Amino acid sequence: MIIGLTGGIGSGKSTVARAFETLGAPWVDADDVAREIVAPGEHALLAINQRFGDLVINPDGTLNRAALRTIVFNDPAQRQWLESITHPKIRQRILQHLEELSARGAPYVLLVSPLLFESGQHALVNHTIVVDIPQELQLSRTLQRDGVSESQVHAILAAQLPREQRLAKADHVIDNSGDHASMMQQVSRLDELYRRQPSA
Length: 200
Prior knowledge:
By secondary structure, the protein is α/β, with parallel strands linked by helices. It has 2 domains: 1-26 and 106-199, P-loop containing nucleotide triphosphate hydrolases (Rossmann fold), CATH 3.40.50.300; 33-92, no CATH class. Helices cover 55% and strands 12% of the residues. It has 9 helices and 5 strands; from the N terminus they run βαβααααββαααβα. The protein has helices at residues 13-22, 30-36, 43-52, 65-73, 76-103, 135-146, 150-159, 163-169, 180-196, and strands at 2-7, 27-29, 109-112, 127-132, 172-175. It has a 5-stranded parallel sheet with strand order 2-3-1-4-5, with helices on both faces. It is globular and about 50 Å long.
């Protein structure tokens, strides 16, 4: 059984995923996979290099994310091309990782993805959890953690599904605005629920 875990920026997805992991449920992070498929030697990086030139490649051969972001952020057609190259590869690699984790005998596995609904990755999972916090808290946590400007956080928020829509799509919600104990209690409850269900 695969559980999709998502939430807005700064909501504490990784913290919640680590809480599930302490109970025996491993996880795959879609962001990690997105970085994996553009590592040196990967086909996606070669394609990106061919299209945009060495401007998007660092001296050590890795992808210059900032340069690529600038290009695709300002040009929807280029972004569409990039997504057509990367999204199928991300999906394929996610499935591979999920299968490997399931084969190790985990009761269920998590797919942690900030864009679970937006990217269509929710189609890969049996149930969805949204980690939710109020937007003001999202803003303050992200500013504190990432050292980015307020306008950058608002741009990221704008690229994600509005909070109400994300909550409406969730099978389960974890309110992460309280303390660690409150979050763990909610995780334990869901863990028991998933363990009781036959894998679908």
